Amino acid sequence: MKLSLELGVTTTLLLCAAISFFHITSAEDPYKFFNWNVTYGDIYPLGVRQTGILINGQFPGPDIHSVTNDNLIINVFNSLDEPFLISWNGIQQRRNSFEDGVFGTTCPIPPGKNFTYILQVKDQIGSFYYFPSLAFHKAAGGFGGIRILSRPRIPVPFPDPSGDYTVLIGDWYKSNHTTLKAHLDNGKKLPIPDGILINGRGPNGLSFNVEQGKTYRLRISNVGLQHSLNFRIQNHKMKLVEVEGTHTLQTTYSSLDVHVGQSYSVLVTADQPSQDYYIVVSTRFSAKILTTTGVLRYSNSAGPVSGPPPGGPTIQVDWSLNQARSIRTNLTASGPRPNPQGSYHYGLINTTKTIILSSSPGQVNRKQRYAINSVSYVSPDTPLKLADYFKISGVFRVGSISDRPTGGGIYLDTSVLQADYRSFIEIVFQNNENIVQSYHLDGYSFFVVGMDGGQWTTSSRNNYNLRDAVARCTTQVYPYSWTAIYVALDNVGMWNLRTEFWARQYLGQQFYLRVYTTSTSIRDEFPIPKNARLCGRASGRHTRPL
């Protein structure tokens, strides 16, 4: 009864919020409404009972289907016994970092309460996902797929597929998220995961149905906690068509490396004899190879899967690096707008700043921590964006992290790096560790202009791809290697830059990029949402008059 009452009140407030938001968005852009109830529930993905996080009773959560420029009004009711937030991996939140759903921007939803996210998928297409961002909730579920279709009059560089499937892959622990969190809080590293899931199912727990001769789109996202994964389908090729909102050159692959946090769209044609075929997902660059299987099932199948599942690459870095370099932007295809993706000549723009980032593990107060440029991030008592908006002192310091590796020991701080709005910067991820790193930047899509082994130097720029580098929001960095990206800072706000290795993120390998302007115009940044929750030192303040 309480939930029904809350949702009824929320609907009224939600409509008020939507109507007010209507005045600062285009009148012709549609609204889509979602009501989500977040609960605990028993799940058995690897054959043992554990506590999962469900959305409307589903694990994984429901897909979000949208079209470029849609306004998404998502009312999230928190029926857990702890605070909760959802973040939207790859959704750029144009001019609106308040809605990003990480603790640096958004107050948590208290138990028994709700919050209505008001998002617009402005000038975006492609395949993304959402996930719970607080504590270690991501290890319990609460994630789901997001797809943004092109508007009807915008050409897409391939025919409409006969089917469109979300494929969420990721490593998984049998332990509950609370046990894993306690392990990290005690200063320990996590053991290797217990297995791999495909759409929340363990080995042979999932099948995709296809018809002979037809072509299907698979939107593959690695929503796991640490491992890079290789995806392949027995006897079938995959044509890559989109990466995190960018239409790519349509290169064909027999298997595809999907690093943690990344999303890819492939086309698969059911062009083999009618039977069942293995779908295989296995870990990359790991001492112990974890593998799981699903089934691609032809509608007129003559029999079950046969033979061993096809093998894939395991520890070969060069194989993966060469594949990554082959993923390029389709310059003649339209993106979210009619103009070709290649009409933005990023390679002709002079960069105004270079930021070099390097991670390091270490001990602080005899507990395991991870850092970027020697700073291990600690969350303050107030979201950074609220402290910035209300000018609350003592929450963070601009420049509390260097834009170059310092070479010093790890220390704790609330690390915020500032950059100027409308600048065009170069970020170099230098990986001096023997693992594959994966980094994500909220609020942006960036050009992956180069990656190679060894130490980055200014002469490394001679080998940059300044013509058709893929634009995406999550990039890998290979062991003892570097990756360079170009970013046009056209989105004011407080944006999380983090590792997607989730235990490392939890233990400090992240910071916030404050993209700053002195302008207060809504052309540059929206005002704080009227329904924004206020917490910490922002409690008792006011958003805007209702």
Key descriptive features of the protein:
Cu-oxidase_fam; oxidoreductase activity; signal; 7-stranded mixed beta sheet; 546 residues; 6-stranded mixed beta sheet; 37% strand; mainly beta; 5 helices; copper ion binding; 34 strands
Could you characterize the architecture of this molecule?
- The chain is mainly beta.
- 10% of the residues lie in helices and 37% in strands.
Q: Which class do the helix and strand fractions yield?
A: mainly beta
* Ends distance: 27 Å
Mean pLDDT: 94
The total beta strand count reads 34
Number of helices: 5
Q: Which residue ranges are poorly predicted, with pLDDT under 50 across at least 5 consecutive positions? A: 1-26
Largest sheet: 7 strands, mixed
* Rg computed from alpha carbons, rounded to a whole number of angstroms: 22 Å
- Helix content class: under 10%
Query: Could you say which overall geometry the principal axes of the C-alpha atoms support?
Result: globular
Amount of beta strand: 35-45%
Provide the fold topology.
Elements: H1 2-22, E1 31-43, E2 50-55, E3 64-67, E4 71-78, E5 86-89, E6 114-120, E7 126-132, E8 144-149, E9 163-172, H2 177-185, E10 195-198, E11 207-210, E12 215-222, E13 229-233, E14 238-243, E15 246-247, E16 252-253, E17 255-258, E18 263-269, E19 276-283, E20 291-298, H3 317-326, E21 353-364, E22 367-372, E23 375-377, H4 384-390, E24 397-398, E25 411-413, E26 415-420, E27 424-431, E28 437-441, E29 446-453, E30 471-472, E31 474-477, E32 481-488, E33 493-499, H5 502-506, E34 510-516
Parallel strand pairs: 1-4, 3-8, 9-12, 11-20, 21-27, 23-25, 24-26, 26-34
Antiparallel strand pairs: 1-2, 4-6, 5-7, 7-8, 9-10, 12-18, 13-17, 13-19, 14-15, 14-16, 14-18, 19-20, 21-22, 27-32, 28-31, 28-33, 29-30, 29-32, 33-34
